[in-house]
TrEMBL record:
One of its GO terms (molecular function) is DNA binding. GO terms for biological process: negative regulation of DNA-templated transcription. InterPro entries: Metal_Tscrpt_repr, Metal_Tscrpt_repr_sf. It comes from the Bacteria. This is Metal-sensitive transcriptional repressor. It comes from Terribacillus halophilus. Pfam families: Trns_repr_metal (PF02583).
Length: 63
């Protein structure tokens, strides 16, 4: 779009849509990770480490 000299607002709108899509994919991955990896770690007795890692991911993802 930039190479085609498109209107700046159109480019910014597309960037916003891409960011929203990536955030949605991220939330789905985070949900899957929580339900599987973190839950399994808790069942196996490694819950503290898994929860700590999950909180770090939330912190990075929230930025």
């Amino acid at each position: 779009m930039v190479d085609d000299d498109r209107y700046c607002v159109d480019i910014l709108t597309q960037i916003s849509a891409i960011n929203a899509s990536l955030k949605q994919v991220g939330f789905r991955l985070l949900e899957d990770h929580t339900h599987h990896c973190v839950a399994d770690a808790i069942k196996e007795g490694d819950g503290q480490e898994a929860i700590g890692e999950l909180l770090q991911v939330f912190e990075r993802f929230a930025k």
